[in-house]
């Protein structure tokens, strides 16, 4: 029997939040949404919505009374401030906290000091200290790149213009999980309280490479001629870090750092050969599933 019956979610809007919320509701958890400001009709009527001050331990503690599990899907800018959320969770007696991480290589020790990744390491260390003191438990979900993002734009292949900028040689492997399945994996974590306690768990629907996708695309549409070029992930990463150091914090610069690490294959552990898919209830994509995804982009 799961020890988690009631779950609160911080960051229920955005890209991932709605999928996590839906998965929790569908799994019949008692769900509470923590929000800065209530908007009429923004959430399902079955969901309790509580307005909170995310900078106040007192405000959050009051909202978390009676909550068993807390999942954060906060945006990158708010990740470091999750210490307030953790302190409130402890004060309210929350049993399990899931920090906002959900990445490809966020757990690689090689990235601990790197901008973007450093706040995640700080939060995980903070959680480990609190767990060691017996104050709460934690789980980090490493889910690879969001499948929806990889196919939603020209991240790995530019399907619209039939172009491919290959990272290194195009054989770098990357694990990927769709947003709905990230939601299901989070449900799986809360349902398997002991098995997921104080650890990093991994979900991966599929391990992709650009060359594999290119071969599938050429098989699906042999009439299309692809234009390819190459770029070194180390060069992309360096460029992003240099621009960040110069004071450019724009999204294109952030994306360079993310691409230079997440798409660098096994250098930072972006592909998971061992996963917790079975425990979490995540089904892996078949070759036919992948072919359909690619075909859909070329239709």
From TrEMBL:
<dbReference type="InterPro" id="IPR045312">
    <property type="entry name" value="PCBER-like"/>
</dbReference>
<protein>
    <recommendedName>
        <fullName>NmrA-like domain-containing protein</fullName>
    </recommendedName>
</protein>
<dbReference type="InterPro" id="IPR051609">
    <property type="entry name" value="NmrA/Isoflavone_reductase-like"/>
</dbReference>
<dbReference type="InterPro" id="IPR008030">
    <property type="entry name" value="NmrA-like"/>
</dbReference>
<dbReference type="GO" id="GO:0016491">
    <property type="term" value="F:oxidoreductase activity"/>
</dbReference>
<feature type="domain" description="NmrA-like">
    <location>
        <begin position="5"/>
        <end position="220"/>
    </location>
</feature>
<keyword id="KW-0560">Oxidoreductase</keyword>
<dbReference type="Pfam" id="PF05368">
    <property type="entry name" value="NmrA"/>
</dbReference>
<keyword id="KW-0521">NADP</keyword>
<dbReference type="InterPro" id="IPR036291">
    <property type="entry name" value="NAD(P)-bd_dom_sf"/>
</dbReference>
């Amino acid at each position: 029997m799961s020890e988690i019956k009631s779950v609160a979610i911080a960051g229920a809007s955005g890209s991932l939040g709605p999928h996590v919320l839906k998965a929790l509701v569908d799994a019949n958890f008692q769900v509470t949404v923590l929000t800065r400001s209530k908007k009429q009709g923004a959430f399902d009527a079955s969901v309790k919505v509580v307005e909170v001050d995310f900078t106040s331990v007192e405000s959050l503690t009051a909202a978390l009374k009676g909550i068993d599990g807390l999942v954060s899907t906060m945006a990158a800018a708010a990740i470091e401030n999750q210490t307030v959320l953790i302190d409130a969770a402890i004060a309210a007696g929350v049993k399990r906290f899931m920090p906002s991480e959900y990445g490809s290589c966020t757990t690689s020790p090689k990235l601990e000091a790197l901008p973007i990744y450093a706040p995640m390491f700080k939060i995980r260390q903070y959680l480990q200290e609190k767990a060691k003191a017996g104050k709460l438990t934690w789980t980090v979900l490493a889910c690879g790149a969001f499948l929806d993002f990889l196919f939603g734009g020209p991240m790995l292949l530019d399907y619209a213009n039939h172009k491919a900028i290959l990272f290194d040689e195009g054989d770098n492997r990357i694990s990927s999980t769709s947003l709905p399945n990230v939601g299901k994996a989070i449900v799986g974590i809360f349902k398997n309280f002991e098995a997921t306690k104080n650890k990093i768990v991994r979900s991966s629907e599929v391990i992709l490479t650009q060359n594999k996708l290119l071969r599938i695309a050429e098989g699906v549409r042999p009439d299309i001629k692809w234009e390819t070029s190459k770029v070194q992930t180390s060069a992309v990463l360096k460029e992003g870090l240099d621009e960040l150091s110069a004071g450019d914090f724009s999204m294109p610069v952030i994306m360079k750092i993310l691409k230079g690490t997440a798409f660098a294959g096994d250098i930072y552990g972006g592909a998971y050969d061992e996963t917790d898919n079975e425990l979490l209830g995540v089904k892996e994509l078949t070759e036919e599933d992948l072919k359909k995804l690619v075909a859909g982009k070329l239709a």
